[in-house]
Structure formats: C-alpha cells, structure tokens
Amino acid sequence: MNTTLAADRWQSVRDQLVGLPGGDGVNIAHEAVDRHVAEGFGSTIAMRFLGKHEAPDDAGEQYTYQRLATETSRFAHVLRGLGVWPGETVFLLAGRVPRLYVAALGALKGQHVVCPLFSAFGPEPIKQRMVLGNAAVLVTTASLYRRKIAGIRDELPVRHVILLDVDDQADAPPDTWAYGPLFDRAIGVFQITATSPETPALLHFTSGTTGTPKGALHVHDAVAMHRATTEQVFGLRRGDVYWCTADPGWVTGTSYGIIGPLTVGATLIVDEAEFDAQRWYQILEGQRVDVWYTAPTAIRMLMYAGAEAAAGIDLSSVQRAFSVGEPLSAEAVKWGIEHLAITFRDTWWQTETGAMMIANTAEDVVLAGSMGRPVCGIQAGLLTTTDAGEIVLDDSGHVIELDDPDRIGMIALRAGWPSMFRSYLDNEERYRKCFADGWYLAGDLARRDPSGSFWFVGRADDVIKTAGHLIGPFEVESVLNEHPDVTGSGVYGIPDPVAGEIIHARIVLRRGVEPTDQTISSVMAHARRRLGAAVAPREIVAVDRLPITRSGKVMRRVLRARELGLPEGDLSTLEGPVTDDQATDHEGSDS
Ligand code: ATP
Ligand code: MG
Predict the structure, then answer these.
(1) Global confidence as pTM
(2) From atom 11 of ligand 1, which residue's Cα is the shortest distance away?
(3) Are residues 366 and 515 in the same domain?
(4) 320-353 tens-digit pLDDT
(5) Which atom belonging to ligand 1 lies closest to the Cα atom of 252?
(6) Is 489 contained in some domain?
(7) Could you say which of 270, 277, 308, 575 is the most buried, measured as most Cβ atoms within 10 Å of its Cβ?
(8) What is the 3-state secondary structure (H, E, C) of 370-424?
C-alpha cells in the first residue's frame, strides 16, 4: 500500500477530533475535556469517583466537564509554575483518586509526558521506571512517598515531588510540595499552546509478562484512535455511564480508563477499592453502568465467587461488556450469558498499539472464543513464521501473508495508525525489530476464520511445540480451568529430546480442596478427555499461587524457569509480595 492511501485511511479517524482552536494541532486533554465545555456540555458529569469506603451506589465525588477543565488547567499552571518544561516527564503514583486524574490531564495540557505507575509497585520497579523515563516530576501521596520514595529519593532524577493528599505545606516532608497551596494559587484557565500531533504525550511500560518491561512512548495523535475505537467498539455516546475496571497503571486504565470515554462525553465511574465480586455487581447496578470494560482475570474471579454473588442484583442497565488483556475463553463468555445475562466481548491490543486493534464491536454477533475483527481502518494480517517464531521473508524481502484459515501466523498490523508507539525508551534496536516490510509485528500468534475473525493461539514466546503440534498454553489452561476444583492454571513447555517439548501445568485448587493424588488424577483425566493424550499436560502440580503480573497475566516464563532452575528474570511486575519489603508495601494503604 502506498503512503497516500495509508494517510487517507486515518483521515476519517482523525476527522472525529476537533483540534485545538485556530488550527493549533491536537492535544489529548483538549479532546477529552475542554472541547465539551466549549461545545456547551460543561455541566455533564465527566467522572464519578467512589472512595474505597463509599457505598457502591453512592453519588461519589462528582466532576462535571467544567470542573475537570478548571482543575486540570490549574494543575497545568502548577507544573509551569514549578518550571517544568513541555516534553519533560511527569510520573504518577497513586490509587484511583480524583486528583490523580486531574494531574494526568493537566500535565497533558502542558505538553508534559505522562507516565502512570501502579501504586502497588515496590521501590525497585518504581526506581527502574523513573530512571529510564527520566522523571522530572513525581505526583504521589504522603504515605506512598514515605513508604516507597523517601528511601530512594537521591537515586531518582526528579526535581519536584507533589503530594496529592497534603493540603498544608507545613505537613509536607522536606523537599516535597503539598498539592493544596500550589493548586489554590493557580488560576483555572490555561490556554493549551500549539501541540503537534507528534508531540510525545504518554509513556506506558508493558506488563512485563515475557521479560523486562519496555517503555512505549505515545504521542497526542493517539487520541484519534482512542476516540474512534471508543465509538466503534464500545458504541459509547455522550452521557452514557461507563466503567473501566483497569488501573491507570497500565495502558488500558489510561487509554480507556481516562481518555477514550471522555472524548465522547461519557460519564466515567472510578472505584478506588480493590476487586470484590459483590461490590462490583453493586456498582454496575447502583451506578446504572451502560458499558463495562474489564479483564479475563476479573471475570474468572467473578466466576469463582459464583453466580450467588449477583443474586438479587439488577444488571439490566449493562448494555455491553468488553474484556482485554488475556484470552477470553468461550467458557467465560457462556458463563456471562447464562449467569449475568451479559455477553462479554473480547478485544485485543497491546501497550505498543495504544488502542484496540481487533475486537468484537458493539454491532458484531459474538463468536465465543474469538477476538473479533480489525477495527477503525486497521489492517491486520497473519504472517508466516519459522518454528522459532521468526518472520519468514520471501526472495524479494517481503513478508508472507497467510490466508489459509487453518494456518497459524503472527498477528501483524500495517504500520502507521495514530496510536502506534513511536519508540521504546532507550531501545531503538528493539523498536526497529518490531517492524518488517511496513508491518508492525505483534509477537502474538493467531488463526483467522473465513469470516475474518481472529482466534488467539498464544504469544510466540509461550507457544509449545510438542510432537509436531503447535499448542497455545491458553487452549490447555482453559480446559484445566473448566475442572470444578481448579481456579487457575499456567501451562508451559519443557525441553524433551523426543517430543521437542512436553507440556507441564501448574494449577491452583479451589479453597478447601486438598492436592491429593486423587484430585490431580481427576484433573488429568479431564484434560486427557477434552484435549487428547498428545495435548494434555504430561505433569500437573498444584501450587498455592501462580506468578501473575499487576495487570493480571500469568507469567509462564517464571513457571518454566522455576522448574528448570533457571534465573526467573525480571519480577518487578509480579503481583503480590516478592520480598518482605514489598510485602509491607502491598498491605499498606495508599493514602
Ligand atoms: P510484555 O510485553 O512486557 O511481556 P505484555 O505483552 O503482557 O508484557 P501488554 O502490552 O500489557 O504487555 O499486553 C499485551 C499482550 O496481552 C498481547 O500481546 C497479548 O499477548 C495479550 N492480550 C491482550 N489482549 C488479549 C486478548 N484479547 N486475547 C489474548 N491475548 C491478549
Ligand atoms: Mg508485550
């Protein structure tokens, strides 16, 4: 395809944006906030924040678009007043409290690069990211500062630390700023200066599922894709109530927990509390949520809690629900339909893609187990790979696209969409390796059926080659998880001289079930029956917990390394306590 055509393709996506007044370019915060005020919708509720102790049907702390516009302007002035330059990076480390969202959008107004981190990260992962991202400012809370930052402050590049929950400078520890007085002094009108669509805007670290997290840099142009996909996939409209359960600490919580839904003028629900099945159902009911975006881990936990947790709760407001982050099994889709009368629709994308690329849209008839089709002008292909997962080029140096529905290939996206990452921080070579022949190589393997729907097989790093079969761990895990005693599993390959690799599984059993030989045999028999002897795991061992990333993904590489006695690699994104030090962090409250 030539570049003119590629440019045209994105024109219709970009046309949905209003742009800065006077043709001054594109700024995410203008599209998400100020435009609505300018268009006369300032009194619409933009965000409703539920504190962690607030009832699920509470009105919460409400932000109209006008209030959000004013407060984000003030925050943009705060940064400017501190001498922070456009292009400098502002890190955010806090729970899901209103001022975190104000800080993110305010920093975007000032053309600072925003990098949200999970507040549950320990000091080491925080330091790694802040050093790599050359943080100029850290916005956090007093307690997080005390517990995680004070001890490493000297090693961080930050010039300013702003404590969101401190309203009196006398209460701020040395070398930190209290938010209150800075904010009170700032005026509530900020004129966003000309912003080129290519201006860096967001820095997101990948989940670290397959190795050390990479810092993917995105630009203001990304908002074109955030908006277009929010409209096309979610079918979200002005005034709809929308809830994204992801934390802004990973890309979903920013692209769709803040930006996308605000650009269409929806009302966002933000809950500060951690997962609780009953609370979640009560929020869906109490807030009259129209559109809900969540993840397979959460859906699995809801399944585990049992349909009883939803008993007596009216979920009829929920018109559409979506999932992202890991494969959504057909079983989970069926469970949702049967027990909640909700059809979960799968969406596929990555930190690098910045926005949804393949999805079951609001309009589509859902094929349970499929990720759906490319959205919003995205051209997705499946490319031929070697057994080792490397892309195969033909004699003239071009990639080879597959169109046989039975073949497995690597998902690739025609490069150039607006929310495509523009670099990996400090890793130009790795960035270059993500592209071939005008395609972005996603690293995930899939099939495509004759209707054009994609079916996830596995990450190229995770797929198992055993006795001539190519097996995605997810296929095996979904079957293991179907067993009534199993609540989670991780499947991986172990080298074998005869079969190439053999399949091993680690499972977590339902609370109260003992890991007896009989239980394991029953799980094994179920796997053999459903998968056949060639694909069923050769070994199944019960463990107390699986290594899971903060964004809820099974780290199969860690299971494999543990078994083979290899180094476990980067564990900074692991959920839950790793060391005693982090155990304390994990238990402590955020603010
Ligand atoms: P890292 O790149 O550091 O190993 P990661 O790939 O998990 O971490 P993310 O960008 O958060 O980091 O996740 C994107 C990946 O998540 C995808 O490449 C894919 O493997 C998986 N994923 C996302 N959505 C889906 C989905 N709907 N079905 C299957 N897998 C999905
Ligand atoms: Mg990845």
Answers:
(1) 0.93
(2) 207
(3) no
(4) 999 999 999 999 999 999 999 999 999 999 999 9
(5) 11
(6) yes
(7) 270
(8) CCEEECCCCCEEEECECCCCCECECCCCCECECCCCCCCEEEEEECCCCCCCCEE
